[in-house]
């Protein structure tokens, strides 16, 4: 008789999701970055392209995050949003966690600080690429995911271990919490 696997109480649904080998993921990402460098040659254009790719990923993975994270509902504050990104989303998609630091006085800007970056596992930046934000895809993914839950934000790397910093740090600045606008046509039909 075949046995069924059972979920233990408290086990997150995302913990049962099959994982891609981290080394394979890092090497594949490295090949993508190299191809973009070959295609665009200008480091600023490469940074923009990586952010754009990340944005498109974020727009798509937010549904998976919301479905599998086990969070009880929408975040009620910027603090909850930051903690969800740092502790749940980073763990779910990157296998690491981040610390939330450096809140501004208005509580609209914070930093995600993390020591390990699986994207940079086998990477050394040559001197001619010092302006490259190698992991800029993460900034785009955060921005895209937040936008899908009606939070407009800007993200940027402020510290990067590839550039000699002791830690990786992404600054997230929440610019606007957008209200969901329902079109008049939709309202009339409901």
Automatic annotation (TrEMBL):
CDD domains: TRAPPC3_bet3 (cd14942). The keyword Metal-binding does not apply. Keywords: Endoplasmic reticulum, ER-Golgi transport, Golgi apparatus, Transport. The keyword Calcium does not apply. May play a role in vesicular transport from endoplasmic reticulum to Golgi. It is found in: Endoplasmic reticulum; Golgi apparatus, cis-Golgi network. This is Trafficking protein particle complex subunit. Belongs to the TRAPP small subunits family. BET3 subfamily. One of its GO terms (biological process) is macroautophagy. Homodimer. GO terms for cellular component: endoplasmic reticulum; Golgi apparatus; TRAPP complex. Signal peptide: none annotated.
